[in-house]
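**Fold in tokens:**
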Amino acid sequence: MSTKPFDDRDGFIWYDGKLVPWREANLHVLTHAMHYASSVFEGERAYNGHIFKLREHTDRLIKSGEILGFKIPYTADEIDAACNATLKANNLVDAYVRPVAWRGSEMMGVSAQSSRIHLAIAVWEWPAYFSPEAKMKGIRLAWAKYRRPDPRTAPTASKAAGLYMICTISKHEAEAAGYNDALMLDYRGQIAEATGANVFLVQNGEIHTPKPDCFLDGITRRTIIGLARARQIKVVERAIMPEELAKTQEVFLTGTAAEVTPVSEIGEYKFTPGTICRQMVEDFGKLVLEPAKWQKPAAA
């Protein structure tokens, strides 16, 4: 992965309806999103020139904006086309795709009813979230001190920028302590997710995963549930308390960036990536390279 700053790269970013040179895709310091977190985004991944489950991501982006009280001024078809055009303009086939929508700088204050809604799409090379060596032996997770909030206190069904503040803090603290990531509990003390990925536990040949009632029901998460059930592996979505890790044999994370990543340690608990972890890694790796199985048919 390139370490070059994200504001100083070659290429093009789709910005409010047109492709602009990368370094010119700028916004004002008094943009509402910067001060009041009125921004939503998506994380998508392209494999061999096809963006994995693009329409599902686009639909969620639109819905996230609606939850925050704004309407993105483009249709799902237009957003899909813009994502594909941006991928092509940057001559990339394997890439990370980042659509982001936000309130602009017309108003500065908590209320921003008249602010313009912007949309931008950037793509860049992003091979693996974790190194292959770390991934296959399992990554180490610390416990996050912050918890996923009650849906009555935050718009938890949206992929909103503001909800990731506690994720960045938690991941930084975990990395400073020598871990790869952190596992977050929810406001009830139940296992929720990692800082940017959903979590699955393997117990006696069954897969158990937290019910997504206060965090995102990830698109990769749903994909893995489908792959597991296709193999006749029982998948249970339920409330899971942290002490259940003592009777868990395998753990893995899922997400656009993480894909399927085995876990070897969560705090004081240790795990050995086994048969189910390896099977899910393999099945997901095959699926993303078969767009006919998940790609939305082209419009007539």
